[in-house]
Amino acid sequence: MESLSTKEKTSKDCNGDSVFENVVRAPDVPVYAVMVAYSKDPSPVKLNLGIGVYRTEDGKPHVLNVVRRVEKLLLDDVSATKEYLPITGMAEFNKLSAQLVFGADSPAIKENRVTTVQCLAGCGSLRTGADFLAKHYHQHTVYLSQPTYGNHPNFFLAAGLTLKTYRYYDPITRGLDFQGMLDDLGSAPSGAIVLFQVCSHNPTGVDPTLHQWEQIRQLVRSKGLLPFFDNAYQGIVSGSLDMDAQSVRMFVTDGGECLVAHSYSKIMGLYGERVGALSIVCKTADVASRVESQLKLVIRPMYSNPPIHGAAIVTAILKDREMFDEWTVELKAMINRIIHLRQQLLDAFA
């Protein structure tokens, strides 16, 4: 029988200070703090210029027509289930995602040198890649552009990697500091990881030309650097999915290795579905197979396997020619409207 003194001690312990009493309040994440402030602002003319999401003419969230169409089909599909996906995700989704960025005729795909695993959007893909590199790559230094997307450093720091930067944006010319970029990457240690953005560089909007990309590729290969591409905006720059992927395809057709984090948040408006993938291009099919086996061990303790709904939407669109064409038309219309709005803003300040 529990003694009175024990009961009193237990009661005192429970009523005392929290075991988390020394936890310091973390600062708000700026972009999400803006969202909260926006939701509380009563102004009828407020605009949310924080998080990067597409809005309709009246400022409402926009769901692509082709996405709504696919969701209705999925709802009516009696064969569809809610079973767990494999650790690597939906196989058809992975195959189509690799083809979208590398091209359906990519030699790397045909030779089975690419392993693709479904991840939780672009952020999850980058973090999965970072964790894999921390465990299985000899060099732990990552070079990020200066500036870069605000969350980029977090993925690699959380994985235990060391960060350095390379010059990218020139505020005087408001363009690319190409020579500075080459100089910094040229002085990077052999094997260093370099994070590039495939197109529509966040936050500057400045991209290298194809000629400059070729010079970057030659430097990367001659130095033995490992390129890691963030592919969040494919199709949003030129309106062409193939044109916008030319940078990363250069690094695949040369037979070298690289990593690519894909995201469907922006290009299909699937922000809340968290749909993405990580592709790793390897020297041989055997290496790719072994890399995939280790990616499973990275994913298993993090989230075990990815969600099914968003991947099912993307798969349905990518595999059907009519739906694919409908998507690209909608995407192009969104891009044209954004360009028009930017021009209007520029004219207003002129």
TrEMBL record:
Keywords: Aminotransferase, Pyridoxal phosphate, Transferase
Designated name of the protein: Aspartate aminotransferase
Catalytic activity of the protein: L-aspartate + 2-oxoglutarate = oxaloacetate + L-glutamate
GO BP terms: amino acid metabolic process
Source organism phylogeny: Eukaryota, Viridiplantae, Streptophyta, Embryophyta, Tracheophyta
E.C. numbers: 2.6.1.1
Additional comment: In eukaryotes there are cytoplasmic, mitochondrial and chloroplastic isozymes.
Record family assignment: Belongs to the class-I pyridoxal-phosphate-dependent aminotransferase family.
Required co-factors: pyridoxal 5'-phosphate
Any GO MF annotation of the entry: L-aspartate:2-oxoglutarate aminotransferase activity
UniProt enzyme class: transferase
Entry-linked InterPro entries: Aminotransferase_I/II_large, Asp_trans, NHTrfase_class1_PyrdxlP-BS, PyrdxlP-dep_Trfase, PyrdxlP-dep_Trfase_major, PyrdxlP-dep_Trfase_small
